[in-house]
Amino acid sequence: DGVLIENMFDIPYLHRRDLGPEVVACMARICTEVRSLLPSYIPCGLQILAGGNREALAVSKACSLQFIRAEGFVFSHIADEGLIEASAGELLRYRKAIDAEDVLVFTDIKKKH
Known about the structure:
This protein is an alpha/beta fold and about 110 residues long. The chain has one domain (about 5-105). About 35% of the residues lie in helices and about 20% in strands. The chain has three helices and six strands; from the N terminus they run βαβαβββαβ. The protein has helices spanning about 20-35, 55-60, 90-95, and strands at about 5, 45, 65-70, 75-80, 80-85, 105. The strands form two sheets. The protein has a four-stranded parallel β-sheet, covered by helices on one side. It has a two-stranded antiparallel sheet with strand order 4-5. α2 (about 55-60) packs parallel to α3 (about 90-95). The mean pLDDT is about 90. InterPro entries: BtpA (IPR005137).
């Protein structure tokens, strides 16, 4: 069991390249509040739509979350927002660079919808 925080209904979703700092800042604020309300034994994670895997990893590290859900990790796909490129290499290198290897990455192998 665990809690997944997601910017569901923040529509229309923006492609990762168009995500502004306001999305990351709001998600960080929300994650901080949710994490503070949960007992420490309940894992909490984040997904930032659409394809904001690096952003989710940064917020998760900053807010002491345990995992992210990564969209488009292995395979690229076409979504409503455009091309979501595979991000495995980039994301795992970034995770190491920000010392977030304790943040688990749960992935969608294929597109979830």
